[in-house]
Write a structure and sequence with these properties.
Layout lengths: L5 H12 L4 E4 L6 E3 L6 H12 L8 H18 L7 H5 L6 H18 E3 L1 H12 L3 E6 L5 H11 L7 E4 H4 L7 H10 L6 E5 L2 H10 L3 E4 L4 H12 L6 H12 L7 H32 L3 E5 L3 H14 L8 E5 L3 H8 L5 H8 L7 H8 L21 E2 L2 E2 H11 L1 H23 L4 E5 L15 H9 L6 E6 L2 H5 L6 E5 L6 H9 L2 H7 L6 E6 L5 E5 L6 H23 L7 H16 L3 H8 L2 E3 L7 E3 L3 H10 L1 H10 L11 H8 L3 H5 L5 H18 L4 E5 L3 H12 L3 E6 L8 E3 L2 E4 L11 E4 L5 H11 L6 E3 L3
Parallel strand pairs: 1-4, 1-6, 4-5, 6-7, 8-9, 8-12, 12-13, 13-14, 19-20, 19-23, 20-22, 23-24
Antiparallel strand pairs: 2-3, 10-11, 15-16, 17-18, 21-22
Helix pairs in contact: 2-3, 2-5, 12-13, 12-24, 13-14, 13-24, 13-25, 14-24, 15-19, 15-20, 22-25, 26-29, 27-28, 31-32
Amino acid sequence: MIDDSELFQRLDDLLSQREITHLSLDLFDTFFRRACSEPSWVFEEAARRVLANGVTLPMEAEDYRLCRIEAEARARKQSVREEIYFTEIFAHVPLCSEHKRALMAEELQVERDVIYLDPLVQMILQRAQCHGLQVIFISDMYLSEVFLKELIIQRCPQLHNVHLFVSSELGLTKQSGSLFQQVLSLLAVKPEQVLHIGDNPKADVQSAQQLGLASLHFDLPDHLSDVLENEKLYRVNLSSTMQHARKLAVLSIPQQLSEEEQFFYAYGAFTLGPILTAFAKWILQSAKRLQVKNILSLMREGGIFAACINRQLDFQSQKYPDIRCQTCYASRKATYLPAIDDSQLEEAVSQTLMRRNYTVRDFFNEFGIQDVRLASFLDTPLAFLDQISVDGQDGLQLMADVFEQNIEQIKSNIQQSKLAMRDYFVGLTGDAPYLLVDLAPPPPPPPPLGGGGTIPSQISKAMQQQPVTSLLLYCNHRGSKNSVITPISAFIPVRNDTIKGIKKIARSPEIFEIVLVGLEGSTLGYRYTAEGKVVPRQAEVRYSARHQQNIRSFEAGVNAYQLWDQSLGIVEPDLDERLSFLRMMERLVECPVSSEVHYLGNLVHEDNFGSERSYKVINSSGLTRIHSEGIETFYRKFSKNMSYGERWLAWPQGALSRLDPDLMMDFVGLRDARYKHAQAIESLLELVQSQQATDVIVYGAGEFFECLVPELVKNSIHIRSVIDKKANFGHYQVMGYDVISLSECSIPSGSVLIIASASFVEEIRRDIFAAIFSQDVTILSLN
């Protein structure tokens, strides 16, 4: 898997095309990983340990964490060097010397305890050694060279004569580029002889490349970094090791994938892979607890569920020696007739008449009947039959007459389908107990494609050998009602704190189901072969080559995540992590990033309950209708009634996000612009003041600019011009400033230009450099 990855292909290309003699590695978040949620956790844990040792600190561990962060910020602000010493930080901690010494010592010990080597970087090291490269480390870090060398030697003893260049000792940083220059001088090597790998786009990539070094970015792409930030707002709380596995899976992306295929690979590796892997572990735990050896994973989602379960069985064969998992070809349509009881036939037919997009042809095919009087209306939806007349008779009444005239044939068809289905299941498990695995329960009628325990409950009605229980990825109140028919257990359970999130997922399941169902056709029923074996009848598959490749990329991403999950030894999920998986899915439904809106919104969903209809997740007619109602009016209706618009809009939040990428964040109250940008604006102001600039040009006239302007004015910094790409379509004003295009702006020599954006910074830089003629222009940005 790794040898075919894009990362290693780029690494091999650089090593083969350039005269590389030195491999330079960043330390933290590249060579080293911390087994904690974020670096500042180390500060809090240090305080916890000091308090546990009986030291009477005048603050709680959580409060010390904030104090330690602020102390570092003040130390950096007052330092005359580019980097600070570890001890300088504690000059700003308002504690006695004894407490400071205890906290410093404990912080170093916590660092020792939580540090581990990144497995991908270990593979890179092996490759470097095969090429005879000298390995060096270059780090922007306040910790001492002695301490960092100790960590390197302890964690990687095979490295000899460790060459470490750390900003705290040299007073220079990668961020400014001066540390790279110093290293080149000390080693007496040329820039083209060094390949640097690190996670920081500015310090490790841009600064290195500007000096002529080759570099590789060792972190997530921007859109996934945005997803991580949004997940924090949704209180997604996964273990640091699981977060690391997500990153490793993304970094293992195969080479030569298109941009669209890369998205679907990441969708599997980063978003759904962790959920499916944890679901598989939970299923195996449940099977062992219930002492059931047969797991039947219901198609079509059962294909990927079974793949994950069987991979997990391979990993943990000693723990689960007798359990086996098979795909079970079943669908709402295939199990519908077998589940009907003769005494409830009329009720079943009345429910059939309520199905969305269901036509006369679908009804006839379902029950195995026909009538020439309705031959001209085969493609008419059942819901419209009361609006037509056939030979002077109401269409709906005629359909009722046809049903009555064919009732014995229908009963015979039901009995035959029941026997075939029973024989199919006996072929899978014999008479042994079994568990069913399914996605979820169905939403209320008229149903779109989806879960609710319907298939398990229909199987239970039709089968003589009942399933021990049905294991669902998630359940809702409607699905839980089926627990009186067959036991149901949900990975994401119905609770007061999950009901709302589950409703959001159940309202728009298409963005999950379309990739989960794979590439096989829906199960239509069962048939006997010439040998007497029962096999499923499946709908013809008509997926485009493009869709097929996207699904394969998605499945490869899921596989990659599961392999890294196993490699890092991630344990079975607890309930808190299972609730975090719900929040991950809720975030995707409610506040998707632009790439998710684009690619998931373009997916086509097949309504496979006996109907041959399909629909695009986000379509132009739905967007037009939102426009005609008004965005705020539509959202108000949808907020009051989540089922509003379900007949014509599969993913309301995605559609709104396509109309305005920031809209949902605003609607759900997760984005206060000034708070969001406060730290970034402070950083930009410090950069401007370091240049002693009093006159600037600003690129970017969006929300960030609106928050930046008052701060520039407050600091007596004049805005000469405002540039934005949208001005290519015509001039406009923001906060009294005329906004012009880049091509119209005069940028003389000596200008200071601020990029007022946290996104697409590199793209903006390229545009600016392509447009200006003078090299004597200072560009200030966040990265």
